[in-house]
Design goal:
Elements lengths: L21 E4 L13 H12 L3 E6 L5 H11 L8 E4 H10 L5 E5 L14 E2 L7 E4 L14 H9 L4 E3 L5 E4 L2 E4 L1 H10 L4 E3 L5 H15 L9 E5 L2 H10 L3 E5 L16 H11 L5 E3 L5
Parallel strand pairs: 1-2, 1-11, 2-3, 4-5, 4-6, 6-7, 7-10, 11-12, 12-13
Antiparallel strand pairs: 8-9
């Protein structure tokens, strides 16, 4: 049961695993840090699966499933740690597929261009576009949302809707936090622009996830009480899971780590206070996922 007061620090996933048939697990900040696999997390997920459980990785990556799996392989995430992967990029792609012939201005790095492959859309410059699809900053190593203020203001003034294929504001890349397309969507909305966000914490991706977990488990419908969500983002992983009626294991050593003091020995009272301010609840927390 989700603890909305003072959730305890879990000794490991093993302490919670017997209560659940499936895990809905975040990727960045939990399974890898944007550079390499977090080994103990992979071992924990594999052990859960070895015990008969199912693991669906769910990520706000603005890319297709195959790209994310290839990235997991490059980072060294073990294949036996998960059953399947679901991405916000796939959700955004499905939306575009339902709007054939649309003229799209791609706002993001070239590595995300496969999201449009085999779709009936035309990629155009900002002047000819009827919709903006934002997958991130062009160069998230050096740029910030401030660099996009004038560009976003001009697009918003034209009334172009923005599809946001990654609602995350920031993610970890090694020891650095980098800006994501959610930060640009937030700016765009503040400028009066219309935004359509795909991925966590928004309900559609959870409905799709429930259906996929039911398939993996081999039932027609899965009881949300049988699923444990794992994630490090309060406004994406935790809020989305709370809204979907899922218990949550909060990974405090991810994007919010600096707010809790020592990464591996977080201040529990600081975690409780942040959860309370956000109006969120979790079953338990731990710095990094391990068995």
């Amino acid at each position: 049961m989700t603890n909305t007061g003072h959730p305890p620090r879990a000794s490991g996933l093993a302490a919670l695993a017997p209560n659940y048939r499936a895990l809905l697990c975040d990727v960045w900040g939990v399974v890898h840090d944007g550079v390499k696999a977090l080994h103990d997390a992979g071992v924990a997920l594999a052990r859960f699966r070895n015990g008969g459980g199912k693991v669906l990785l769910i990520t706000n990556a603005p890319r297709l499933r195959a790209q994310v799996v290839a990235q997991l392989d490059r980072f060294g995430v073990q294949r036996d740690a998960y059953d399947d992967v679901m991405t916000s990029g796939e959700a955004a792609r499905a939306y575009l597929a339902a709007s054939p012939g649309v003229a799209v201005y791609h706002l993001g790095p070239d590595r995300d261009l496969p999201i449009y492959e085999n779709l009936d859309v035309t990629l155009v410059g900002p002047e000819a576009a009827t919709v903006v699809c934002c997958t991130g900053l062009f160069d998230d190593d050096v740029e910030t949302p401030d660099d996009y203020q004038d560009r976003l203001a001009a697009l918003a003034a034209r009334g172009l809707p923005m599809i946001c294929a990654n609602p995350d504001i920031v993610v970890e890349r090694g020891t650095k936090l980098v800006w994501c397309s959610g930060a640009l969507a937030e700016r765009y909305r503040a400028l009066g622009g219309t935004t359509l966000l795909f991925g966590k914490p928004h309900p559609p991706i959870y409905a799709t996830a429930f259906a996929r977990i039911a398939e993996l488990v081999g039932v027609s419908n899965v009881d949300p009480a049988a699923i444990l969500a794992i994630g490090d983002g309060l406004e994406t992983d935790v809020r989305g899971a709370n809204q979907a009626g899922l218990d949550v294991l909060f990974i405090s050593g991810g994007i919010h780590a600096e707010a809790f003091g020592e990464r591996h020995q977080p201040d529990a009272s600081a975690i409780h206070a942040m959860l309370a301010r956000a109006g969120l609840g979790v079953r338990a927390f731990m710095p990094r996922l391990s068995w």
